[in-house]
Amino acid sequence: MDQETEAFKAIYKTFVEKAAANRSVWGLKGKGGWANAEASGDADAVIPFWNDRAQAKACARDDWKGFLPTEIFLADFLENWCIEMAENDTQAGINWNAQMQGVEVDAIDLAMDILNRLNEVNSGITFSGYSSIKEFISSISEE
């Protein structure tokens, strides 16, 4: 899987734009927790996320049979998920297909790209730990 292909770049860009517009992402949750897989790179693991319920549901098969598409609000995703994933050396899988192919990115890079997109569109999103998108970006940039 060559992640530098134009197709994967387009998938990633679409994910960032839709996440910012919808103010949410989707994961797959089962009785034992959230769907995850072994990362293809140096990270310990990867947790996949999708832009919509239908995409997530299409991947609830094989090892993830019985997992349910679950919405994660964007503020929580950025403040909690991405930060914790970065601390735990876990990458984010972006809009994987049913064959578990897709983009894997560092969680902090993903958070930064979504935050920059939110800033571009002058989003009024509210965070619990930051007074503004710019403060959040500044905080991540310092780490």
Give your account of this protein's structure.
- Helix content is 43%, strand content 20%.
- The chain is α+β, with helices and mostly antiparallel strands and 143 residues long.
- The strands form 2 sheets. Strands 2-1-4 form a 3-stranded antiparallel beta sheet.
- Helix 1 packs across helix 4 and helix 4 runs antiparallel to helix 5.
- The radius of gyration is 14 Å and the shape is globular.
Which properties best describe this structure?
143 residues, single chain, 20% strand, alpha+beta, three-stranded mixed β-sheet, three-stranded antiparallel β-sheet
DSSP strand (E) fraction? Answer: 15-25%
Radius of gyration: 14 Å
Please give the alpha-carbon distance between the first and last residues: 30 Å
Arrangement of strands in the largest sheet: 2-1-4
- Structural class of the secondary structure composition? alpha+beta
Instruction: Report the biggest beta sheet as strand number plus sense, adding barrel if it closes.
Output: 3 strands, antiparallel
Q: Given the structure, what is the number of helices?
A: 5
Q: What are the secondary-structure elements, in order, as H or E?
A: HEEEHEHEEHH
Report the helical percentage: 40-55%
Global shape: globular
Q: Which regions have little confidence, pLDDT < 50, spanning 5+ residues?
A: none
Average per-residue pLDDT, rounded, comes to: 92
Strand count: 6
